[in-house]
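Run log // design_07
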């Protein structure tokens, strides 16, 4: 997402190098609603089967059961979203 100068006014970006990496094609952010923390590797295996992915997907734990998922191709990305 790109903000215009007017939209960015009032935002304070303490450390732009931390947190979510730069945008890449075929990337989604998802949240797992569970009272317990979820293991990234368990989520990765489960979602690969549930989505029926043809290629590997890279999962990154962003904390609070929030995950960034980068797909290897547009077909898998469209199917998962």
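design_07 sequence
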């Amino acid at each position: 997402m790109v903000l215009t100068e007017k939209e960015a006014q009032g935002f304070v970006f303490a450390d732009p190098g931390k947190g979510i990496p730069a945008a890449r094609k075929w990337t989604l952010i998802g949240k797992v609603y569970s009272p317990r923390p979820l293991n990234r590797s368990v989520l990765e295996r489960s979602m690969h089967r549930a989505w029926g992915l043809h290629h590997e997907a890279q999962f990154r734990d962003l904390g609070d059961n929030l995950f960034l998922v980068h797909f290897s191709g547009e077909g898998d990305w469209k199917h998962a979203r």
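The chain has one domain: 24-80.
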